[in-house]
Amino acid sequence: MVETRPLLTIAIPTYNRSKELGLLLSVLAPQLTNHPEIELYISDNASPDGTPALVQRFQAEGLVVRYHRHSENIGSDANFVSCYQAARGKYFWLFGDDDIILLGTIDNLLSHITRGDFDIIYATSYGFRDDYLAERMGDPLGRRFHTITNARRVARVINIMFTFISGIIVNKERLDEIPHEDPSVFLKTNLVQLSWVLPLLLHHRQSLVMWDRPIAGRQGAAGGYSVGSVFGEKLTYMLVQCLQGRPDLVRIITNFTLRRWFPSTIDDIRSSGNQNLRLEEAETILRSCYGNNFRYWLFTWPVIKLPLPLAHLWFKGGVLVSKALYMVLIPNFWKKEI
């Protein structure tokens, strides 16, 4: 008997976050009822907490899940790759163990992928710190979904959020048909997920944006890496390697990152006093990577160097500029559905 390929694999790499994983599964499990076309896969990176018992409890309650536990911690990038390699679905969704897939999202997603064929699906998100329901935010323009056939427009809409694993679903079946590097080539970049996203942008046909913010992304959990190294040296390397022949796409993502993402991230780091992302290293590295781009000096550098109150005002001014450019560069961005 030939096994039917799942339509979608939701793969959750996890390490030592049984409490957060339990919340995610409690919201996700009822959405998977009566959906045998969806494969749920959990890759436990040798968690020392109660993760195995947690998964067993959900299995006993009827959740169908493939659970794999590594014998030792192989690192986050390698765990991501192991999820990608183990996934059997046409579509592959790598999802963070501390984020939430809101109720109704799975049915909404299936309504699209059963009727159309997409290279990339971008599920927009909102940030939360304590209560994902109390802090819920929808799309301010009331948009529902956009279907996009232009790669440049996809790059402008998703931009640096290509790096956010919980917001990106890829067509693995399509990826198998186009040239791309083996993801293991990019281990220890902290951005290995781009190895299966950017080739689909390079060979783009059609993508979907789900605008109603169906993903709640937990804030304040990032740390343990240098923001300058990962989003300077390594991001630049990944973009150039995976988008060869399309410097225009590289520029779109890079320019947004300098104009909007770095100032926002640096403002948050400075305001919170969070030292986990090693901001003190960032200025030297970012200048070496982006110093020939005027956007670094206009938008990012002042937020690093100015006194905090002035840096915050500078950041806010940059947000207004970025929003204005968004309206100019993305026609019909305000439409509810396209």
TrEMBL record:
Q: Enumerate the GO terms in the molecular function aspect.
A: hexosyltransferase activity
| Annotated Glycosyltransferase 2-like domain residues | 9-143
- Cite the InterPro entries for this sequence: Glyco_trans_2-like, Nucleotide-diphossugar_trans
Q: Which Gene3D superfamilies does the record cross-reference, listed alphabetically?
A: Spore Coat Polysaccharide Biosynthesis Protein SpsA, Chain A
**This protein's UniProt keywords:** Transferase
PANTHER family found in the cross-reference section: GLYCOSYLTRANSFERASE, UDP-GLCNAC:BETAGAL BETA-1,3-N-ACETYLGLUCOSAMINYLTRANSFERASE-LIKE PROTEIN 1
Q: What is this protein called?
A: Glycosyl transferase
